[in-house]
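hiii, so i know i said id send this last week but things got crazy w the move. better late than never?? heres the sequnce for the chain we talked about at the cafe, plus the structure i predicted for it. fair warning i was half asleep when i ran it
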Amino acid sequence: MIRPLAAPLAALLLAASPTARATETPLTLDEALALAAQQSHELAIARADAALAGADTLGSLQGLLPRLDLSTSAGRQFYGPSSYDQVDPITGQVVPHSTSASDFGAYALNLQLTVPLVDLAAWRSRSQARASERAATLGHQETRLTVAYDVIRRFYEQLKAERSLAVLRKSAARSQELLDRSEALYAAGRAQKADTVSARVNLGNDLIAVQQAEVRLVQARSDLAAALGQPGDRALSVVAPAALEGTGLPAGEPPPVEALLATARERRPSLAAAAAQVEAADATLGVARAGYLPTLAAQASYARSGLGATGTEGVYGDPSRNYSAQLGLVLKWNFFAGRATEASVVRAQAGADKSRASAARTLDAAAGEVSGARFAVVSLARQVSLSADNLGAAEQGLALARQRLEAGLASQLEVRDATLKLTQAELSLVQARIDHAVAVANLARVVGGTL
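okay and structure toks below
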């Protein structure tokens, strides 16, 4: 029962399976990056953070600009009946008095202008908000780099999965050919039964590898869809960049580490964002220290109140009558706030120290990223060259093994070994080429965008 099913099963698995078929229009790398720029959830969150920081910067003007408040009220005031005793100053007798319930209108209008004159805390708050907004904007730019690299990486991972699957299918096809030949030789009495059994096992192993590769391809497509801000069940297909289609080897080496580090310090958004966060922390410390200092503001107010709403003497009548106005300077200086100001200064100082340490850590990490990314590019370029040489040798080895088998000088085992080496060489070259492309993209990311 095994033999009749072997060929149909192999044909089924070597065909384009439903899980490996993409139903979407193939995406180029540029199209994938453009789609991520529009739909990435990470970018949307970073944009929102930058917008929130911008709103905080706008709000920081509150302590620096004049404030004008208008308030008015209209209603009635009620008094209940009451009685009381009063001593007559002439006779000395107690005279009882009483009042009946009454009510009358109560109207008020008040206009107040406050102009800050001296408020160091407000100025430092403004500086803190602007530095925080700059850090958020730079954080958004860093997120753009991260998202772009993630899309590139997952794009190439899908390509790797697709090409690895193609290599494994070719390997399974070669195993099918070897099984067919073994069965033909066994039928002609020129081979042993053990050779056909061994060939069938080899084919089964290759078909299992195909199935495993299809699972990896489905996962790679899901990962790419997530990076693009789309549902993970979208069956995306991709088009390999032209540079990856060529047979040439990577040429040249990246600039030296020192030059790459200088570029990163100049262009990497995360490094500039760390510096902006230090500036914001210093401004926060200034705000806390300003709690020890006085504030000075000019204040003017105009108020009217009365029993009537309209008319000459009404609250909403002639503004030049029946009013009170005030103009002056308001000085506020808190001498003791239960050590709350001191606690704020200590907290802000700790925050500034933490920001400096974090910025130093970010710079050290960036140096490590640049060095590691450059080494990966150089190493993988060498791997591509070695893998290409290995592939040529493996192709020659398989051709020679087949010739020896045809001449009766080699066994099926020798051909199988040559086939496995060819499959390994093909997979190694696919992986090295794609990993090199991803490494180049990562190096561009860690230096700030482009090499």
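btw Residues 120-187 form the longest helix (68 residues). thought thatd interest u
miss u guys!!
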